[in-house]
Specification:
CATH topology: Butyryl-CoA Dehydrogenase, subunit A, domain 3
Order of helices and strands: HHHHHHHHHHH
CATH superfamily: PhyR, sigma-like (SL) domain
Distance between the termini: 37 Å
Helix content: 55-70%
Number of strands: 0
Oligomer: single chain
Structural class: mainly alpha
Shape: globular
Number of domains: 1
Number of helices: 11
C-alpha cells in the first residue's frame, strides 16, 4: 500500500469519479467509520487496514469475474490506486466494501470493452477459482472439492452480467439490492439477473446436480 501511495502522489493515476455506494458490509460499522476518517485524512495505517480487510476478497472477485489471474492483478492494483487518489472525496459515511467492489467492477467493464472480450469466450479462459496464487484464500479448501469445481466451471461459462450477479450475492454475501446498486441496475433487474443466472447455471449442471448448487438456489431475493 505504501508503494501505491507513492505512485498516486506522483500523479501516475488519472482521476475519475465513482459514485459513493451506501450499502452494508460485514465490517463493524464503528470500526469502518474510523477507517473512513483515517483514509480521508491520508493516514497510512488506515489504508493498510482497509487493504488487509479487502484485498483478498477483491482479488478473488476480479479473478473469478475476468477468468485470469494476470488481469485480476492489474485491475486489483488499479482499484487500490483509485481509493488512494479519491480518498479525500469519500463521504464520512461511505461503505468501504461496496465502494471498492463498485470500482473493481467498473474497471473490469472498462477492460472488457477495451479488449472487446465476448462473453462466449469466458468458458475457455483460466477458470473461475484461481489456483497457484500466493494469496491466501478462504475458499482454498472448497477448490479441492469436485462439486465446487463443477460449479466454478459453470459460473465461468455464464455471461459476465450473470456471473457478477452470482459472485456478489452468492459468494460475497451481499443482498440483491446491494448488488443492484454496485452494478448500476434496478433491484428488479438484479432479481431477474439472479433468476436467469441460477437457471442458466442449473442447465449447465443438469447432467448431475452438485450438492453445492443448493447454496446458490437458496439466495434470498
Amino acid at each position: 500500500m505504501a508503494a501505491l501511495l507513492q505512485r498516486a502522489a506522483a500523479g501516475i493515476v488519472t482521476l475519475s469519479r465513482f459514485p459513493a455506494v451506501r450499502v452494508s458490509t460485514s465490517m463493524d460499522r464503528e470500526h469502518e467509520l474510523q477507517l473512513v476518517r483515517g483514509v480521508r485524512t491520508g493516514d497510512p495505517a488506515a489504508f493498510d487496514a482497509v487493504y488487509e480487510a479487502f484485498n483478498t476478497r477483491l482479488y478473488n472477485f476480479l479473478a473469478r469475474l475476468a477468468g485470469s489471474r494476470d488481469v485480476a492483478d492489474d485491475l486489483l492494483e488499479e482499484t487500490w490506486l483509485r481509493l488512494v487518489t479519491h480518498a479525500h472525496r469519500l463521504q464520512p459515511d461511505t461503505r468501504l466494501g461496496p465502494w471498492l467492489f463498485t470500482v473493481a467492477r467498473h474497471l473490469h467493464v472498462s477492460y472488457r470493452r477495451s479488449r472487446i472480450l465476448e462473453d462466449s469466450h469466458a468458458a475457455g479462459l483460466l477458470g473461475l477459482w484461481p489456483s497457484g496464487s500466493t494469496r491466501p484464500s478462504p475458499l482454498e479448501a472448497a477448490e479441492a472439492n469436485e462439486a465446487e469445481r463443477r460449479i466454478a466451471t459453470g459460473l465461468a461459462s455464464l455471461p459476465a452480467r450473470y456471473r457478477e450477479a452470482l459472485l456478489l450475492v452468492a459468494v460475497e454475501g451481499l443482498r440483491p439490492a446491494e448488488a443492484a446498486e454496485i452494478c448500476g441496475v434496478t433491484a428488479e433487474a438484479m432479481r431477474q439477473r439472479l433468476s436467469r443466472a441460477r437457471a442458466s447455471l442449473a442447465r449447465r449442471l443438469a447432467e448431475g446436480e452438485s450438492p453445492g448448487l443448493a447454496s446458490l438456489k437458496e439466495v434470498t431475493l
